[in-house]
Amino acid sequence: MSYLGIDLGTSGLRALLVDDAGRVLGSAERAYPVAHPHPGWSEQDPAAWILALDEVMAELAARVPGFASLRGIGVAGHMHGACLLDGDGAVLRPCILWNDTRAHAEAAALDSAPQVRDLSGNIVFPGFTAPKLVWVRAHEPGIFARTARVLLPAAFLNHHLTGEAVADMSDSAGTSWLDVGARDWSGMLLDASGMDRAQMPRLVEGSESAGLLRKSLLEKWGLTGPVTVAGGAGDNAAAACGIGALRDGEGFVSLGTSGVLLAARDGYAPAPETALHTFCHAVPGRWYQMGVMLSATDSLNWLSGITGRKPADLAALAGTVPGPGRVRFLPYLSGERTPHNDAAVRGSFTGLGHDTGVAELARAVLEGVAYGLRDTAEALKGTGADLQSLFAIGGGAASRDWVSIIATVLNLPLKLPEGREFGAALGAARLAICAATEATAEEVMTAPATAEVVEPLRDLVAAYDDGYAAFRAAYPAIRGVQ
């Protein structure tokens, strides 16, 4: 039997087919555009997702023998998006994406409302779903009046696959409508943004069945069925399933365009004042917490753009400079989320001198991102998280020097996974296995083999502690002059 994991990303859809043991049988992907009709707006036509899905399914059917034995599908999606459907299930407008900031005023108003943080466990960020609907109500009242259902991107694909409006807990936790501790929609949170429960999808755990694949799609894709569709997950929860982060303190550092430090939690311990996200995990009875910094490898990409050197070359050049360096970089190129929740702050270099060259700037960028990740680690420790087993993943993890700096700044060993299949698509496929076979998450969601453990440089830990203290002190000083 085979199982399909779908990673519905912002810029493209990737499908990963695995067998009963989780071994990869094949994959396919398609890209699609993002529209930015106004500054701060970010939208996508859900029809592009359906087209991409049809194309990858046709490709897998044509070239992967195991496709015909498909028995389960799981969908992981980018979180916080707002897909608005009318009473007939027709899409009313383009999906407003996670990185759309038009609803910043609405988010601030919701965030200050009584009990909103207490029930949702989180700050209401402009990218979350609830403030988007408040914006639609104010600026597109005709569309708001016709909105019979609001679905997140992954739930929209679930609806396409099953014909049912169903969503999982991990994705729904990022709407500001879910009581994250109780794992259910909150009437009070819905009322605060003018919504009601009838407009919400049915909730299931990510590893449970959301329904069966529709007969028309079975025929279209040449399948005999039945095919179980799992509840699925938000992208980071799916990545945690793919890396095997289920137990308290297990997690990963992701060095992508943005930076994420995520830890699984056995219990619910929200800390919205730290700008940590506290969300339901994709498996029952567990949660996860994560901090997000907006510019991780994007900081290196920015330096690449102004120096004309490739990011990988800059990372290698940074390794030739001893650290911690005198030059300090604050990686707030587009504001910052954790721990400052500050969209207005911008980045800076300090400590520049006549002897400062590209290597010193590159070193400062790597260290600045590491210090930003430590902000999240400190916030997690404050909630009782015991960070003991973290993988380093994402494009930036290809730089061993960068991983070494982060390990030293965090004073934690970081594991580099073996192979390349351990992300959201694999996590979604694992959820499909659980939903279709009733296997437990512990049986299916194991950690990948470790290629290498990068230990902290013990003789530099104290110096980096001092560097982090200076980094923390720099934020209010820089903020005060911007």
From TrEMBL:
It catalyses: D-xylulose + ATP = D-xylulose 5-phosphate + ADP + H(+). Keywords: ATP-binding, Carbohydrate metabolism, Kinase, Nucleotide-binding, Transferase, Xylose metabolism. Substrate binds at residues 79-80. Gene3D superfamilies: 3.30.420.40. It holds the Pfam family FGGY_C. The keyword Nucleotidyltransferase does not apply. GO terms for biological process: D-xylose metabolic process; xylulose catabolic process. Its EC number is 2.7.1.17. PROSITE patterns: FGGY_KINASES_2 (PS00445). GO terms for molecular function: ATP binding; D-xylulokinase activity. The record marks 7 as: Important for activity. The active site is at residue 235. Residues 3-242 form the Carbohydrate kinase FGGY N-terminal domain. Residues 252-436 form the Carbohydrate kinase FGGY C-terminal domain. Transmembrane segments: none annotated. The keyword Nucleotide-binding applies. Catalyzes the phosphorylation of D-xylulose to D-xylulose 5-phosphate. Belongs to the FGGY kinase family. This is Xylulose kinase. The gene is xylB.
